[in-house]
Design brief:
The chain is an alpha/beta fold and 206 residues long. It has one domain (3-9, 34-205): Rossmann fold. It is built from six helices and nine strands. Strand 4, helix 5 and strand 5 (138-149) form a beta-alpha-beta unit.
Length: 206
């Protein structure tokens, strides 16, 4: 799926489905927040949430006092939805409407977070571009937090195929640019009473 088709797909998803009608709905992003605590991420740290869509992570980070948050998503509709939900607080966030697979970094971050965007990239060129963008976007020794469907998780999501990853496969995929710190498997309960197994890994920029 090329970038244009990918954008059209996600605009349609967010235009036709309610917030709680998608499998990734998660009012409290416990696993992501645990990584923030683990690394004692400073409140002044520059953070980018990749594929943030209309997730609730940005609310929780703002509530915790984080001051330099960027949210990137391919869907303009998703971004507008979360901005409306945040109200005046949306002005405290930098919004980036872009496909991460063709992202040309223009600033540096201390932490790159991605829960369930990377695994939608199945073309090797898109995967390589993503990794290079993450590397170029992070400051020296910056942290990368990544969540994907595990080898025990779904093979498709929102009608399109994804790429499953074990911890070992994620480590191998990012090894040239990032040193693995930790890795866990987590079960996510969907609004449809099903379970999706995720692989979460944390890395430090080499």
């Amino acid at each position: 799926m090329n970038s244009s088709n990918r954008k059209n797909h996600w605009e349609n998803i967010y235009q036709t489905k309610k917030l709680s009608d998608v499998s990734w709905y998660q009012p409290i992003p416990e696993t992501s927040l645990t990584f923030f605590k683990q690394f004692e991420v400073p409140k002044q740290a520059k953070i980018i949430d990749v594929g943030g869509g209309d997730s609730f992570l940005v609310e929780h980070l703002l509530d915790l006092g984080y001051q330099n948050i960027s949210v990137l998503d391919i869907s303009e509709t998703a971004i507008e939805r979360v901005k409306q939900r945040l109200g005046d607080l949306a002005e405290k966030v930098t919004w980036i409407n872009e496909d991460v697979s063709v992202l040309k970094p223009t600033q540096k971050y201390d932490l790159w977070h991605d829960r369930a965007a990377f695994h939608f990239l199945t073309n090797q060129n898109d995967i390589s571009n993503y990794i290079e963008s993450a590397y170029e976007s992070l400051n020296p020794h910056g942290i990368l937090i990544l969540g994907t469907f595990s080898e025990s998780g779904p093979k498709k999501c929102s009608g399109i195929e994804i790429k499953q990853y074990s911890r070992e496969e994620l480590v191998e995929t990012f090894d040239a640019f990032f040193e693995n710190i930790d890795g866990i498997n987590v079960d996510h309960s969907t609004p449809f009473d099903t379970i999706q197994n995720f692989t979460f890994c944390s890395f430090r920029k080499r």
